[in-house]
Amino acid sequence: MSQEQDQVQGDAGKWRIEVDRLVCAGTGLCLGTAHGRMRLDGGRARPVEDVITPDDAVTDAAETCPMEAITVRDATTGEVLAPLR
Ligand code: SF4
């Protein structure tokens, strides 16, 4: 099996968290909403882990971020799961 196939299989059903650190205002709101999933680094949010098992707290954080700095995607397809605009 190729490394790429391994990667796809390994991420199947998982979500990827992205934070636009140029947009994040460092409010820390997402740390409370998605407890243990986000952290502050240099005054901006960062995911603790980029690829996670599905966790609705993370989509809640993406939906409630005042700057819309968080995007949650299907790790395999790249489909945007939150925020839904
Ligand atoms: S809620 Fe949004 S703006 Fe606030 S720290 Fe998290 S990502 Fe940044």
Compact description:
Helices cover 27% and strands 27% of the residues.
What keywords describe this structure?
about 80 residues; alpha+beta; Alpha-Beta Plaits; 4-stranded antiparallel β-sheet; two-stranded antiparallel ribbon; 3 helices; 6 strands; about 25% strand
Overall residue-averaged pLDDT value: 93
The share of residues in extended strands comes to 25-35%
Shape, per Cα inertia axes: globular
Top-tier CATH class: Alpha Beta
- Number of alpha- plus pi-helical segments: 3
Main sheet attributes: strand count, strand direction, barrel closure: 4 strands, antiparallel
Q: What is the CA-based Rg, rounded?
A: 13 Å
Structural class call reads alpha+beta
Q: What is the third-level CATH name, the topology?
A: Alpha-Beta Plaits
Strand order of the largest sheet: 4-1-5-6
Each distinct ligand: iron/sulfur cluster
- How far apart the termini lie comes to 38 Å
Poorly predicted residue ranges: none
Helix content: 25-40%
How do the SSEs run, as a string of H and E?
HEHEEEHEE
Count of all domains: 1
> What's the architecture, going by CATH?
2-Layer Sandwich
